[in-house]
Amino acid sequence: MDRIIVTGGGALKGEIPIAGAKNACLALMPATLLSEEPLTLTNAPRLSDIKTMTELLTSLGAEASSLQDGQVLAMSSHDINNHIADYDIVRKMRASNLVLGPMLARLGHAVVSLPGGCAIGARPMDLHIHGLEALGAEIELRDGYLHARAPKGLKGAVFEMNFASVGATENIVMAATLAKGTTVLKNAAREPEIVDLVACLRKMGAHIDGEGTSEITIEGVDRLHGATHPVVTDRIELGTYMLAPAIAGGEVECIGGRVDLVRAFVEKLDAAGISVEETARGLKVSRRGGRLSAVDVTTAPFPGFPTDLQAQMMAMLCTADGVSVLEERIFENRFMHAPELTRMGADIDVQGGTATVTGVKKLKGAPVMATDLRASVSLILAGLAAQGETVVNRVYHLDRGYEQLVRKLKGVGANIERVSDT
Ligand code: EPZ
Q1: Residue 420 confidence (pLDDT) above 70
Q2: What's the CA-to-centroid distance between 235 and ligand 1, angstroms?
């Protein structure tokens, strides 16, 4: 298993290119199942999760190939000859459940394994199921698989979610594009990845309004055609790298960064003493003065503070001046980075969904363990300014969501290496 060694050092300087969004791409790829014609995605990120989704789509009979060193995904699902999304693939990546809505809409049936829980929470699918049932699907849970059928096709309906679930919004919107009649999805998720998915579906001929608001209306059509679509910038990779100069000092320009994707996050950086400047090519980030100030953070659905940046923000707050309170309101177990940061000398008290961080002057490098994608990268960030060497194990988590992380951080002067134990 590979590990990453970060040696705390001086200020960072230079630029980091931001890739296409993992969480947009993982919703855009299953959209190929909605049409017999080819769907091509450009600006695709080169990540292991994208490879897993490619594996899943080809297991269903779609053609999916990555070109231009993985930045272009050419897909076509003319002949779907299997409608079972197997547990072995789904358990590796929850987003596999996003083939449910498209398969149901296109084929009238689908068998998708329940993903099961993961490190950060139980992650049920009740909203996906109830939403698709509102469209007329019959869904039964048997042997750990969802057996979904829509023998008479899907019918438009009004459905209100009790929580603005990202994945459920994506599954329901994709299914509704081919339903008969109008669907109104209330309390829909507003994430930029939803806006990007709808932009692509519209290019494919879907009739959708309201994306980015909490009410999305979809007029079903008989069929969708092919399209080519660029994946939107990854706001979570962007926020992650914006924290590198915030923690280590110096100045870094994140190429492709857009402030509208990270507004709530930037407000917190500003309150902590970090300056973010919009440039012609992206966002330039640097510290305004000396020690950073403590800030309180509560995660919420977009446009609130993203849960996927909570761990990374905590890494920065460990050495801020004062006490910061972080409330994790999206997932039930997303503070697993806290005990690892404590091994580096951080002062963090976790009580349920609340973590209280009392800033210390400096962290000390230590061997630490990664537990999930965002926890892993928060340990790398903490290591950038810690005294001595931090060794992050189980870095396969990182490969799921951060392409060329070592190269990007080395490019701005970080002392970071990836070593393989094999
Ligand atoms: C997406 O997951 C992202 N993944 C997650 O990013 C992100 O953390 C999450 O949205 C929240 O922003 C992808 O887009 C592939 P949800 P998703 O449905 O769709 C509960 C990363 O690090 N819920 O909005 O699974 C659920 O348990 C990953 O890139 C139900 O109760 O998130 C959770 O507590 C991690 N019933 C909350 O809602 C449901 O039917 C948020 O889930 C669905 C969800």
Answers
A1: yes
A2: 16
